[in-house]
Amino acid sequence: MTKPQSVDALATTVLNSLSAHIAILDADGVILEANKAWRRFAADNNADGEADDAIGVNYLAICDAAEGPGSRDAHNVARGIRQVINGEVEEFLYDYPCHSPSGKHWYYMRAVPTTGEAPLRVVVSHEEITALKLSEEALRRSRKALKDQARSLEESN
C-alpha cells in the first residue's frame, strides 16, 4: 500500500490540476503562492521573456499601475480585491477581456477570503470564458439578424 500524501502535498496537487489561474494573496496584495496555470500564464506573458512565477509580486500594485487598454478593468479588480481584504464584501466577481495578438480572450475573475485562517489570505482565480463570450456574441448577431429580417418582412407587407 502506498503512503498517503500529506495534506499540503495533496492541496498543491489539487491546485495544480485546476485549469483556473489561482493565486493566494496576503492582506497587502502580495502573491504568496500560485498554481501551475497561473505560473504558466505569467511566464507566457512576461514581456522580457524571463521565467517569472509572480511569487512575491504585489498583484494590487500591478493592477493599480496598469495603463492603456484594459487599465480600467485592472483598476476595478484592485478595488474589488481591496473590498474583500477590508471585509466590505464576501466575494468579488469580475469578467473582463484580455485580448492578445493571437486572438480575443475573456476571463472570469473571483476573489474570496480564506475562511477560519489568520492572518487573512485572499484566493484569486481567473478562469478563461472565451468560448462563452464568443457564443454570446454569435447569439446577439443572430438575434439582430432575425429582428432585421422580421422588420424587412413587415415593411414589404
What is the topology?
Layout: H1 7-17, E1 21-25, E2 31-34, H2 36-44, H3 59-65, H4 71-85, E3 92-97, E4 106-113, E5 122-128, H5 130-156
Antiparallel strand pairs: 1-2, 1-5, 3-4, 4-5
Helix pairs in contact: 3-4
Overall mean pLDDT: 86
The helix/strand order is: HEEHHHEEEH
CA distance, first residue to last residue: 79 Å
> Percentage of helical residues?
40-55%
Structural class: alpha+beta
Q: Quick one: overall form? A: elongated
Strand tally: 5
Number of helices: 5
Radius of gyration: 20 Å
Low-pLDDT regions? none
* Quaternary structure annotation: single chain
- The fraction of residues in strands falls at 15-25%
Quick rundown:
This protein is an alpha+beta fold and 157 residues long. It has five helices and five strands. Helix content is 44%, strand content 19%.
Report on the architecture of this protein.
The chain is of the alpha+beta class. It has five helices and five strands, in the order H-E-E-H-H-H-E-E-E-H. Strand 1 and strand 2 form a beta hairpin. Helix 3 runs antiparallel to helix 4. The chain is elongated and about 75 Å long. The N and C termini lie far apart (79 Å). 16% of the residues are buried. The model has no long low-confidence stretch (mean pLDDT 86).
Keywords:
five-stranded antiparallel beta sheet, 5 helices, about 45% helix, elongated, alpha+beta
